[in-house]
């Protein structure tokens, strides 16, 4: 997320289902940090899936589901996002498309490093 978002207060160590993380998030390295809450409502490390509920920075509801689906010649990383932010929903959805497209490459490299 370098250059897009910076987080204050992220925990260290492994994730676990039911974990609630309260952080502060700053956009573009310069805007004031805002409170943001992430809750890991489902997590399956064996099958590389998770679902989180998030709220903050003008977002009323952000649900993120990540799945990694194995294929014969690799795998497919699938992000599904639900967003509710009132009148800001369209703008935040556009931000999400941009942000997830930008971070897809580094995430694929992390997955490749894990399987190597």
How is this fold's topology laid out?
Elements: E1 5-8, E2 20-27, E3 34-44, E4 49-56, E5 59-71, E6 74-84, H1 89-115
Verbal overview:
- The chain has 116 residues and is an alpha+beta fold.
- Helices cover 23% and strands 47% of the residues.
- It contains one helix and six strands, in the order E-E-E-E-E-E-H.
- A six-stranded antiparallel β-sheet has the order 1-2-3-4-5-6, with helices on one face.
Estimate the mean pLDDT confidence: 87
Number of helical regions: 1
Largest sheet: 6 strands, antiparallel
Q: List the secondary-structure elements in sequence, H or E.
A: EEEEEEH
Query: What's the count of strands?
Result: 6
Query: End-to-end distance, in Å?
Result: 23 Å
Brief summary:
The chain has 116 residues and is an alpha+beta fold.
Provide key terms for this protein.
23% helix; globular; 116 residues; 6 strands; alpha+beta
């Amino acid at each position: 997320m370098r250059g897009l978002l910076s987080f204050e207060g992220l925990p260290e160590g492994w994730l676990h289902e039911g974990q609630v993380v309260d952080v502060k998030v700053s956009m573009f390295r310069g805007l004031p940090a805002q409170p943001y809450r992430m809750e890991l409502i489902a997590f399956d490390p064996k099958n590389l899936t998770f679902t989180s509920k998030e709220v903050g920075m003008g977002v009323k509801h952000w649900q993120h589901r990540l799945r990694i689906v194995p294929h014969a010649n690799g795998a497919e990383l699938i992000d599904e996002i639900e967003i509710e932010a009132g009148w800001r929903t369209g703008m935040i959805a556009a931000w999400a498309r941009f942000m997830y497209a930008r971070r897809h490459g580094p995430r694929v490299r992390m997955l490749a490093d894990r399987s190597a």
